[in-house]
Amino acid sequence: MNTLLKNVFRIALISLLWTGCDDKFLDITPQSNITEANYYKTQQHAIETITACYDPLKHPAFFNIDFFALFESFSDEAVHEQAKLEHFIIDASDDMVRMLYTYLYKGVYRCNMAFEKIPPIQMDENLKKRLLGEAYYLRAFYNFYLTVLYNQPPLVLSVPKDIKIQLPNTPRAEFYKQIITDLEKAIDALPEKSQYPLTDMGRATRGAARALLGKTYLYKASYSPDADIRNDLTKAEKYFLDVVNSGEYALSLPRINDSLNYVFAYLCNFSSLDLSTPAGSYKSENNIESLFEVQFHHGGWEKWEGGWQADGSLTSLYFGPNSYRNLVPTLKFVNEFETLSSHPAGLHRDPRLYATVYQTGDTIVYTDPSRMAPEPWKDKVHTNSNITQGYGWKKYFYPAHVGPDGFHNDPNNLRIIRYADVLLMLAETELLLGNEPAARGYLNQVRSRAGLPAKSSVTKDDIIHERWVELGFEWSRWFDLVRWSIREPKWITNIETILDGFKAGKNEFLPIPIREIDLMGGKLLQNPGW
Amino acid sequence: MKNFWIVPYAVLLLKAIRSPVLSAFFFLVIPAFLYGQPFPVTGKVTDKNTGEPLPGATISLKGTTRGTITDESGSYTITVNSPEDVLVFSFVGYATQEIKVSNLRVIDVELSAGTFAMDELVVVGYGVQKKSDLTGSVAVVDVNEMQKSRFTTLDKAIQGRSAGVYISQTSGKPGATASVKIRGIGSINRTSEPLYVIDGIASEYDDILNSINPADVESIQVLKDASAQAIYGARAANGVIIINTKKGKSGKPVVNFSADYGLSTIARLYDVMDADQYSEFMGMAWTNYAKRRNIPDAQNLYLTVYSKEAREAHGNGATNTDWQKELSQVGKRNSYDLSVSGGNDYGNYFISGNYFNEEGIMIATGLERFSLRANSDFKIGKRINLGETIALSRMNLNDQAHYGQGNPWPTATVASPLMPLYDPMAPGGFGGPVDSLTAANERTNPVAEQILNDNRNITQDVISSVHMDVEIFKGFKYEIRFGLNYRLNKVRQWSPVYKLGNMGLRDNLVNSLYEGRTDSRTYQIHNLLTYTNSFGEHHFSLLAGHERFAVDNDYIGGKKTNIPNELVQVLDQATTVANFGGSKSQHRIASYIGRINYDFKNRYFFTASVRVDGSSRFGPVGGRYGTFPSFSLAWKLNEDFLQSVQQISLLKLRLGWGQTGNENIGDYQYLDLMDPLQNSRYVFGDPQKVVLGGSITSFQANPKIKWEAAEMYNVGFDLNLFENKLQLTADYYVKNQNDMLVQVPISVIFGKRVNYGSGLATVGTWDNLGKVQNRGFEMNASYSKKEGSFTYTVSGNLTTMKNKVIDVGAGDIISDPAYTITTNGHTIGSLYGYVAERILQIDDFVTDDQGNLVKDAKGNYILKHAFQQSGTSPGDLKYRDLNRDGVINDLDRTIIGKPLPDFIYGLNFDAGYNIFDFTLFLQGMSRFQVFNDQMRDIGIATDRYSKDENKLVDVLHAWTPENPSTTMTRADVEDANNNSRISSWFVEDGSFLRIKTVQVGINLPSKWINRYNINAFRIYFNANNLYTFTRYSGLDPEVGSKNPLLSAVDIGFYPIPRSYFMGIQVSF
Description:
The structure holds two protein chains of two kinds. By secondary structure, chain A is mostly helical. Chain A contains 21 helices and eleven strands. Chain A has helices spanning 2-17, 19-26, 43-54, 60-64, 66-74, 83-86, 95-117, 125-150, 172-189, 206-223, 226-245, 259-267, 315-319, 331-336, 351-356, 419-432, 436-449, 460-470, 477-485, 489-498, 514-519, and strands at 34-35, 78-80, 275-277, 280-282, 290-294, 327-329, 357-359, 391-393, 402-403, 406-407, 414-418. The radius of gyration of chain A is 27 Å and the shape is globular. By secondary structure, chain B is mainly β. Strand 1 of chain A pairs antiparallel with strand 30 of chain B, so a sheet runs across the interface.
């Protein structure tokens, strides 16, 4: 029996010896993902890291859908089918409000990650400088929209580590200060558009950074104390002029005086296909007029399955004339386009109307012949009675987004800053600085591309009119109205009478998402009125 | 894997062979064959009351697998080895007796009927115990009763069978698994489902019960208190259900055959409007809308589409589709079971096969299951037992179609009755929403979606184990058990070409096929040493062991489109690649197990156990290893104090404490996992090209996370009266779940992935924060009596549940969608929303001298109370301004309902008279609220989505100035006041009592069947879910969800069918 007991203990002992193996047994490496410790090592990783900084731009919660849905329906330009958007029935827990905020910070986070991880990587120093320049541009870009839309949210300049972090509001002035610093660094580090190889088309350029910096000063001027306005406007003028004088950009002009050429010279800014006429073709995406675009493509992920992660846009599907038609222009906007007594091509209305708005009977004049030909525009029955019957949204419309194999994402880039916008902002800046002749010159450049008669004198109202018709459906109108209303209460009154549900002193900004307010433990205050 | 199998065990084997162990082993084993002089014992088993012989009673040799059964005259013969052997006489429904052989050669036994077997063995973790010796709270499900009802899956079958087990069906769909909660809800994450241990092998899946043929089950034990559960350590906090399958008994082969056939129907449908009513209502709604918004044109839509004239003008005057009716059908089921079992001195076997086929009550849903089982045990010499269990099953589930608008049932209630079912001209042949016929109602044709789209889920399971136990010397045993569960899950989704109307974009102009395979292997191996001995009146047994558990999952799936010939539905035929993917995951647990059972004089019992678990789900710096101890005491009070009280057969007090864990949070959650590069890709270049982006961590990892710790106190007693005729078990417990794993919401400044599945929330970071308490009282009682040839048993169980969040940890958790809140001091997942007080009447608004409503500058009526929305009008719902700030907004939401019942209960009545038997089983839940989400669409007259959805007939009584209704809102095609918001208006009492089973059986008299060598032949008629008593207005108040945050939200489930069937059971 003794021998037996010994042997039993032996078995028990062997069992215990396995303990050593248990640690190894439990330590399993994930097979489907890599971990952070294995990344940020090579030049390729650095390039990828910067690519990821651009990615939030194309998300539906940002420019792709929600920007249109929110700011087109808020403004007097278009009506949305959803009452909650049309009548400002949103609150701090609204998904769109939350998602836009999320994606703006996602962009900021990724740029901050780049600033933390790229500098130690051993790689081509010139490339490193450019990549960081792109990150400065993008961080400024995201922060610009954070303060313009959410007023004074927290300014985040490094990768947060402590999950219990609680940040207070950052004063708007600090946001502008940081945006200006970042953009100055970007201007210094970034090449001009023409200096990039074609394979890098779509990246941030020096011109884009200058335009955004000018725009930042123009916006800052709206909020600045009276004493500083002139200073801000002078800076804005400088950066806009830098763009103008760089020789990199121009308006896309009609080649000959016929109606098609007048429409295409403008419409090419919203199309994904180059627009051809017997007189020659008009380059569309990333053309001479383009300073910064969100790049969309519908190669391998063109199907709806690509969904929220797609490389293509969803704007045409949501707002376009042969699908959901969630946005429809107001009659006020349609009427804003000038009726002409004479035009070089004999048009009776401002040619930009035909490129911006669908009208009954209109057909799509630019199609990729390999794609399905869309039917003539016919209005659908809308339950929202505010919707103007007979008109539809046309800019960025891509006719073949519903193919025989289902929904497609659109390949159409969204133009964020166009040269015409720069010219109009410059005109506005000059006018505010008291330099009316210069203002008139820039404004008339934009008018003359449309074949409209030159203005002999320019007022603020002319600029407002021109911005609206030139930049219609480019969510410029809402931002302009809010910006102007800060110094000119008539705009508030205007908005209040036009827009049902709008409350002055509240709806100029979106609410900070309630979830964020809660997480910041009382430090982060909600915007007034919300 | 190499590490898992080969190394330790190969080492062990090699060492064992080389070492003296093996030789010692043979020295021990071989003489065992030579020990003792066997001799036969014969006798007769009879019923104590009637004196009738009992054919089919089991006689087994205690401590062995050897045994026999009595013949038709109740006689038996068995060979025993020595006078020390003990024979165990048992028969279903009779008290088991043990008799020592001594020098007797003839042993006649009288068994008493109608009492439960006191020495029934109960399977506890890693061993068995006599029921009377239990110190912990272990519920034993009455398998005979359960099997009688012949529910399709085990979870449905055990519902209501035991106190403390809260089972609610999540769907009436064939193959749907129920939500099973033992002693409340202890955790908010993933699931709170228990651990299932089948034939000693733990399962990774909470739907494993689907793969087990209920007829194969020998016993089901529910480990309810921590002192019983702690032996399963880090996986036991939500309770443990141990299922053992049948083994053969000694004797000649016994063949059982059963077959049944049945029909099932939908118990209830919503009373929605037919075409004319819908037309009438639309006229009302559009007129009101036009008037309120002052847009006379708005009525045109009614005139051109909805009016009787317009419908006839469009040639659609006769269309009146009842979508609910078209979507439902009479379900059919049939099931066949065949098993053979038997054994002799050297082994036993149980072999069974089952075929089951069920068509659901919704068209094109159903389940087909084949299963096969072989369980056997072999005795090698006196000291070695070897055996295996192997079960194969294949489940082919024809599921509901998945499509954008979700589940077809809710769609069927809101789809327009003006939409035609068929359209022979359209690809696919079905009608759909056409704007000229159905105007804004773009709800798809749910029947077409269900028929055209094939959504199949095939699960093939192999659940197998081999085990060997060796008695090294008397009382000292070594057991090794190796289990392999292999699962192949196949998903197949086919969509042919079809076109449904011209709205709602539900066209599928290119066919597509998705096929996915998940291949999962679960391995478990354990080595156990047990030692049992007695010193005088001191009895004890010790257990020590080591276990490893490993799961590997591989997924691969792909979708292609454009298959030219729809008859050949394979991926190879497709011309377009859409999407392919694959992933892997692993899960490991290594454990040490120890337990002591001790009793003195068979009166005072003590059990202590400990388990140390290491889990791969937690990191080396966090809580990878956890220790889970438990203690429990029991005292048979009656043997000390109440011996003189004849009526008391047993009074036992039990007291227990233990700690368990929950590690069910998914794999690798402690690591900084990075998303694939393509998740952050962007487009650059001219021509444009997609460029991969940088890897981004998808969530903020917390390397310090550990298992959730549950601590439970249990006090209870078992009382048996009148010779065990009345049995009562009662328990009270307090369970504190600490360190609850909570996904802490983190600020968006962390830039993490956004979770679309749960309402666009940023994916949180895991942390051990929360604290939840469950308390409850449980009682099981049964009374059996036999009077002449009339026998009956009444048994019942009652459970109370109190779930309270003590500390929610990271701030209130609002579910997505925001139906519930989990907040301190309240039940997990409490219903949350606005308080809808009543319907606003004209008096609630400012009026002028003439009594006309006054409008403000924006054209809105002016409420005398808090502002609600622009557009609020008389006839809308009035919400309570809880914070009295003069405006109704998010801050006015509060808890509006309790999702968990205060009581759940089951009542079973069984009776037998002569050849007849009868069963009635009632089950119910009381005092809880259900949020009826469907009412937001169909239960109010203001249209939630402005899509002209169909609604209940009740909306025809909508509020009007002339009919100032207090129960139905005004009619309108838009919901300007947002009456459909989540509010108390849609919260209803969910209490119900259900007649779950009624069964009548006839046992053909033995004189009729014996001549055909048939031992038993029973015919029965059965009805399940015959009737439900409830005030709930939805289809069924039983709306379970595996997500503990959404346990009482009725989003339109597949209703639980009412089924009738008959069957036969034959034994020969």
